[in-house]
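Tutorial, part two.
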Amino acid sequence: MNTFLVVIGIPTFKRTRSLLRLLRSIDQIELPENVQLEIGVADNEGWGSETEKNLEARSAAGRFDIHFIGVSERGISYTRNALLSLSFDKLNADILVMVDDDEIVSTHWLLEFLKTQEATKADLIGGRKLPVFQAPPEEWMLKNSVFYYEPAEDDGICKRLVSTDNLLITKHFYLKSNNAKFDHEFALTGGGDTEYLHRMSEIGATLAYSRNAVSYEVIPIERMSYDWARKRAFRIGIGLARINMMHKVRAIEKIKQYSRLGLILIISLLLSISYFRNKPQRFQYLIYAYQQFGKLSGYRGHLVYPYK
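Running the prediction step on this input gives:
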């Protein structure tokens, strides 16, 4: 039986406690006999491998070897690119699975990813991410699109993926894409993962969804508010507008986007009014409306910098 190498890639920045929590969960995952697993951590504080934090991380990683990369250029795109280079260019891994430092993974997480990849032969596979709230959530937060997103209902080939916070990438496609990287234009704004996945889809990547490859995003109390949710939706909207402008430059496309945005915005606001007594529905439509406001701002060139 041939052994193949899987690297779990983690971008991190000033989240030592949550990084250690993630590494401890990775240490508990189940592996097929023919898989060698290593971990890559790209630290945007720029530290090397001998800091006290990284020594703690080596202990938390338990049975798996861990590689540290100090990334001095500020921004999430640089850390993601460092993980691509480490995994495929340096370690010659067969598969890279990216996961964010504010998540934990389920015991069968990697097994399910590999099962879906074997069944579909997909180039890029998104796993299912579920929120874990650090305090009892209000009813409107449950199934709200800011906290929950699923690109498809079942395992298998899908049309769209938007995030690298639980994503499998194959070496085969990385090489086929001429070692394509994340765009540094999104380094401080976010949205570069959505742009990358859109760009890879355009050049022929096969996308799939693995519903049982579950990771859990830990939602801190400071994010459990309507104010945070609407700001998050606004930033998502800005990112989507930037991607549309980068990949759909024709004037007719912009006119279509503006017309569609205006209609969706009006419908969302009207629905939020009609569901005034139903807070979960009202907030869902209001947050969706803020995403449309974000798109309009993005088309006008407005940016926000959450990673600055």
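The two ends are 47 Å apart (CA to CA). In part three we will examine how such features are distributed along the chain.
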